Amino acid sequence: MGQPTHAFSDHEWWRSAVIYQVYVRSFSDGDGDGTGDLAGLRSRLPYLAELGVDALWFNPWYRSPMKDGGYDVADYRAIDPAFGTLAEAEKLIDEARSLGIRTIIDIVPNHVSDRHPWFRAALAAGPGSPERNLFHFRPGRGAHGELPPNDWPSQFAGSTEPVWTRLPDGDWYLHLFTPEQPDLNWAHPAVRQEHEDILRFWFERGVAGVRIDSAALLAKDPGLPDLATRPEPHPFVDRDELHDIYRSWRAVADAYGGVFVGEVWLPDAERFARYLRPDELHTAFNFSFLSCPWHPGRLRAAIDTTLAEHAPVGAPATWVLCNHDVTRTVTRYGREDTAFDFATKAFGTPTDPALGTRRARAAALLSLALPGSVYLYQGEELGLPEAEIPVERIEDPMYHRSGGADPGRDGCRVPLPWAAGLPYAGFGSRGEPWLPQPEDWPSYAADRQERDPDSMLTLYRSAIALRPRLGTGPLTWLPAPDDVLAFSRAGGAICAVNFSATPADLPAHSELLLSSGPLDESGRLPQDTAVWLHA
């Protein structure tokens, strides 16, 4: 590898970074085949630099059959041909670095694709073979082994399908997600060694960090007990063995100056914080804030809880409004129920786009004002709503495994609109995108928003540019009416958000830095509007 063309001096950049999530398949299509790719993404790096983000987090870009959007990995050391080549990925990492943008990749350690060489070898080797010890193969229960080895549920919300698949030779194998994603056996030393080698492979190619998918699911109770017996600890969630795995990973990352962010869904704050001890993960996603309804008391509680659970281990909080699995913010905030829960997703839920947009603009300023790092999902800076996908075009296995009850996640994965006057809104010049774009998609195009001082894109660019003025110090809540959230940062900046139908007076200040919407004629803060002020 060549020497980096841009040297980063801030070793703790991740504590206050703005990180942009790239779902490659839907970002930008460079070769016109309908699928986003690295060539398209490289052409958009100036856009991302102008947006002002510190890093890009890429959803899996590895060789994959795409049975679950790339989270079924067949080869961690190869880029999927639909996206490009390893050489292109190396160029992308270097070109982004030259613009001051770091790269974070996604690792999926719980499972691999059923096309992975290890699993194909296990199938060929047969029952009782060493190759099968890399996974969870078991005989079935019942007189003839016709019943699954246990009662564990699928990790796909709404799915009633089993997590065990039986092979013609009689063995069953475990897959907490789809049958095409067999779970690895993390008690096997070869599994641990392989993943440490994968980390080294990518750190040596210049990546700055790694996001860990389903980080709390890797370790399994070797006895595979039924959940109906209420075993303690849980047989496959948040097991103590995980911490030794991540301490080993941390040693690898520290050798390269790399960082980790874990996808850790846990209700227990103390258990959650264990993953963020100084010798484990650097950060973890904050799902309580993401799933919180647009309500001042609930949001303040989520903020306070998040900061409190991170404080004992000295880890920075992360703030995120949306990602590749979640209903887009504009749509969710326009609904009667503004919270997010996989279990409540349904077709035909009414939404008010104007209301949702107003709230999403305010939420952008709220999240970017909080201490810690912020993750921005592609298209949120354009104010994209959740798209309604015709059922015959839905690809997400969540939809299919729920029997059609769950609309799935494709609605937030629709290819981005770049240019209003071009075919497919500029996503690609020739082939129809892999997911259909709504008819109104050109109205959200980046080129149109760049010329509009009141657009969502302009708001995000302005906020990210101003964010350093907020400083890196703690948050202090200010006295405010019940339906107003107001806090100051050590740098002298103030953020205020009004949730009330009654306009609110602004906190005492010397300068208005930014507003998510216009103030009223008396200079007060209208409902669902946020401001940044200088004290």
Automatic annotation (TrEMBL):
<comment type="similarity">
    <text>Belongs to the glycosyl hydrolase 13 family.</text>
</comment>
<dbReference type="Pfam" id="PF00128">
    <property type="entry name" value="Alpha-amylase"/>
</dbReference>
<protein>
    <submittedName>
        <fullName>Glycoside hydrolase family 13 protein</fullName>
    </submittedName>
</protein>
<dbReference type="InterPro" id="IPR006047">
    <property type="entry name" value="GH13_cat_dom"/>
</dbReference>
<keyword id="KW-0378">Hydrolase</keyword>
<feature type="domain" description="Glycosyl hydrolase family 13 catalytic">
    <location>
        <begin position="21"/>
        <end position="413"/>
    </location>
</feature>
<dbReference type="GO" id="GO:0016787">
    <property type="term" value="F:hydrolase activity"/>
</dbReference>
<dbReference type="InterPro" id="IPR045857">
    <property type="entry name" value="O16G_dom_2"/>
</dbReference>
<dbReference type="InterPro" id="IPR017853">
    <property type="entry name" value="GH"/>
</dbReference>
